[in-house]
């Protein structure tokens, strides 16, 4: 069994309009997932440096970032990042370029966990436009299908899809099962399931939910979601 989580951390700017990376990290530690997909993990302007610094992660958490090497001070690709536990091994990783009018992307990593289990994880933040979301979903699915090595796969992120079962959700559901995580946006009054976790047929989703703690309600405008998965 592994636990995964997805979190649009909004650059650690909370609903109180304060940027507090240590609060974001506290929320992640509350969840205690083995693998975390982050969205909006880098600052928007300038060098787009990571909000959760290497020092903060190494000194105050059990996580390390997957090194995509896209920019010197960034954690991921277009704000998408993956965190794994320090005893996990990253076998391979890459950024996935997505068709888009505005900067969008996804990240992928093959991870061997402490028990020896290998899973492929994809983190994403899709477009506000429904047409571009479907194109991006198709690009991700095609990229995974074309991969030389195949592993049990978990996809996570902010899909920006307000519909219940149409649009990009229908495209993904042809290949992956959705976790019943619940409504995650807006953090103060959740009304929409914008954030999603999906798993390939080799995996079984055993439990899922929204992490709705006092800290999570103020740390971002999204609540984090999680799922436990049997490999």
From TrEMBL:
GO terms for biological process: GPI anchor biosynthetic process. GO terms for cellular component: membrane. Keywords: Endonuclease, Exonuclease, Hydrolase, Nuclease. Gene3D superfamilies: Endonuclease/exonuclease/phosphatase. Coiled coil: none annotated. SUPFAM superfamilies: DNase I-like. Residues 5-222 form the Endonuclease/exonuclease/phosphatase domain. Pfam families: Exo_endo_phos. GO terms for molecular function: endonuclease activity; exonuclease activity. PANTHER family: CALCOFLUOR WHITE HYPERSENSITIVE PROTEIN PRECURSOR (PTHR14859), ENDONUCLEASE_EXONUCLEASE_PHOSPHATASE DOMAIN-CONTAINING PROTEIN (PTHR14859:SF15). This is Endonuclease/exonuclease/phosphatase family metal-dependent hydrolase. It comes from Sphingomonas kyeonggiensis.
């Amino acid at each position: 069994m592994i636990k995964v989580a997805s979190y649009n951390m909004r650059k650690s700017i909370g609903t109180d309009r304060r940027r507090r990376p240590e609060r974001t990290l506290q929320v992640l530690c509350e969840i205690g997932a083995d693998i975390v997909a982050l969205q909006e993990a880098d600052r928007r302007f300038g060098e787009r440096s990571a909000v959760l610094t290497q020092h903060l992660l190494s000194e105050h958490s059990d996580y390390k970032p997957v090194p995509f090497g896209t920019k010197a001070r960034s954690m991921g690709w277009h704000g998408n990042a993956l965190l794994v536990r320090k005893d996990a091994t990253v076998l391979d990783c890459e950024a996935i370029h997505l068709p888009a009018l505005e900067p969008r992307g996804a990240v992928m990593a093959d991870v061997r966990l402490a028990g020896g289990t290998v899973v492929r994880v994809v983190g994403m933040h899709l477009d506000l436009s429904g047409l571009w979301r479907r194109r991006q979903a198709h690009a991700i699915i095609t990229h995974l299908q074309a991969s030389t090595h195949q592993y049990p796969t978990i996809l996570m992120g902010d899909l920006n899809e307000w519909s219940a079962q149409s649009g990009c959700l229908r495209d993904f559901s042809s290949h992956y099962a959705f976790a019943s995580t619940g409504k995650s946006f807006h953090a103060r009054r959740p009304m929409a399931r914008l954030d999603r976790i999906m798993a390939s047929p080799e995996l079984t989703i055993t439990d899922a939910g929204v992490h709705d703690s006092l800290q999570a309600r103020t740390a971002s405008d999204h609540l984090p979601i999680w799922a436990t998965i049997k490999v």
